[in-house]
From TrEMBL:
Organism in which the protein naturally occurs: Vigna angularis var. angularis
Keywords in alphabetical order: Cell cycle, Cell division, Mitosis, Repeat, WD repeat
UniProt xrefs under InterPro entries: Cdc20/Fizzy, WD40/YVTN_repeat-like_dom_sf, WD40_CDC20-Fz, WD40_repeat_CS, WD40_repeat_dom_sf, WD40_rpt
Annotated CDC20/Fizzy WD40 domain residues: 139-428
Gene: Vigan.10G210600
Pathway info: Protein modification; protein ubiquitination
Matches recorded under SMART domains: WD40 (SM00320)
Record-given protein name: CDC20/Fizzy WD40 domain-containing protein
Length: 454
């Protein structure tokens, strides 16, 4: 049976108006309600920005609050314009070519203050220590010999500098700048080496005649003269009460100033003049360098070397033990070699070799930082400061016009003194103090200027 549909009953006036409002809802908005879309864009109408002292918009409608500026700088870098050109801050900009590595991944807290233009990925670089390029004091040293094989300058633990000029030894007090004459060997002899005892009370003086004198500085008199060498004594090294002397006669004598004998043992190993001697900081090993291009290592009881290093191709005068690493030894070669070599006496091996381009005359290691200084002769006459173990060059100091043959370091470890055949002694601030890298040394602060040693 066919079914027929009856027409709907007519709508009342109220029903008609309700349908009309639904069909035209885009034109009619409730004045009392906020319409939310399915994109979940939150409304800020109920946000209380005044509570946080923030303003969501400026008068021109741009979101340029302090928080927004800082966040924009952190996300997009300092080159981002001060005002966004569009409400959509994540729109594509072809001119922005920021690397993803430039975006900081460090979480922000309410305590953080973001600085525009600051790279939050990297810690600020440590400011390098500034080493003054010029000497701060110069002493005139008339007749200071220009001889590679001699050692005529030494600085004591009591802050007194000993300098040998021809046949005399002079003492310069670094605290008072007072100069005194300690001794005169006479016209028939000359001083070839000086060396302070560890406590700074006794000074050993090696002569051209082969004798070694021990002077009591406080009394100003010689307390002993020791013989044994047949030729000049060009190098001296102390280890407590034991004094080692190296000579042109190729031998090394061990002398104990507490016993009556002139020497307690004789060390034979070099085939030419002994020009460098240094005891290790623990007083267990003695390193010797010679004009035979050899670097030898001895212990307290040996009469023959326990280690031999033969890689240098010129005389080895420059020797320095590391105060930071046991068994670490540095040596420098003469004009035909020009290199600084590093050795481990624990493993009997060479660790590194650096070509300095110039004759190596002296080496000294800093006690305060892991750095060392080398002085040079032919042909640059310069002073170099090195960082160990990278051996990066921290400074190159110039001022001497002759080979920088003599080098010693102050007791506080901050200042070095250098001597040359130009008859000058120059003082340089090259190392920081143990506590501060900006502390000026006592010598540099109190004794600026130029004076004469005699």
């Amino acid at each position: 049976m066919d079914e027929s549909f009856a027409p709907p009953p007519p709508m009342s006036s109220s029903q008609h108006n309700h349908v009309k409002r639904m069909l035209n809802s885009n034109r009619f908005k409730s004045p009392s309600k906020t319409i939310y879309s399915d994109r979940f864009i939150p409304s800020r109408s109920a946000s209380n920005f005044a509570l946080f002292n923030l303003s969501p918009y400026t008068e021109d409608g741009c979101s340029c609050s302090p928080y927004g500026s800082a966040l924009r700088s952190a996300l997009f870098g300092p080159s981002t314009p001060n005002k966004f050109e569009s409400p959509n801050i994540f729109r594509f900009k072809s001119e922005t070519r920021q690397s993803m590595h430039s975006l900081s991944l460090t979480p922000f807290t309410s305590q953080d203050v973001l600085l525009p233009g600051y790279d939050y990925n990297h810690k600020p670089l440590k400011r390098p220590r500034k080493i003054p390029p010029s000497s701060f004091k110069v002493l005139d040293a008339p007749a200071l010999q220009d001889d590679f094989y001699l050692n005529l300058v030494d600085w004591s633990s009591s802050n007194v500098l000993a300098v040998a000029l021809e046949n005399s030894v002079y003492l310069w007090n670094a605290s008072s700048s007072k100069v005194t004459k300690l001794c005169d060997l006479g016209v028939d002899d000359s001083v070839c080496s000086v060396g302070w005892a560890p406590l700074g009370t006794y000074l050993a003086v090696g002569s051209n005649s082969g004798k070694v004198q021990i002077w009591d500085v406080s009394q100003g008199k010689s307390i002993r003269t020791m013989e044994g060498h047949r030729l000049r004594v060009g190098t001296l090294a102390w280890s407590s009460s034991l004094l080692s002397s190296g000579s042109r006669d190729k031998s090394i004598y061990q002398r104990d100033i507490r016993v009556q004998e002139d020497f307690v043992s004789k060390l034979s190993g070099h085939k030419s003049e002994v020009c460098g001697l240094k005891w290790s900081y623990d007083n267990r090993e003695l390193a010797s360098g010679g004009n035979d291009n050899k670097l030898l290592v001895w212990n307290q009881n040996s009469t023959q070397p326990i280690l031999k290093f033969c890689e240098h191709t010129a005389a080895v005068k420059a020797i320095a033990w590391s105060p930071h690493t046991n068994g670490l030894l540095a040596s420098g070669g003469g004009t035909a070699d020009r290199s600084i070599r590093f050795w481990s006496t624990a493993t009997n091996s060479q660790l590194n070799c650096i070509d300095t381009g110039s004759q190596v005359c002296n080496l000294v290691w800093s006690k305060n930082v892991n750095e060392l200084v080398s002085t040079h002769g032919y042909s640059q006459n310069q002073i170099m400061v090195w960082k160990y173990p990278t051996m990066s060059k921290l400074a190159t100091l110039t001022g001497h016009t002759y080979r920088v043959l003599y080098l010693s370091i102050s007791p506080d470890g901050q200042t070095i003194v250098t001597g040359a055949g130009d008859e000058t002694l120059r003082f340089w601030n090259v190392f920081p103090s143990r506590k501060s890298q900006n502390t000026e040394s006592e010598i540099g602060a109190s004794s600026f200027g130029r004076s004469i040693i005699r």
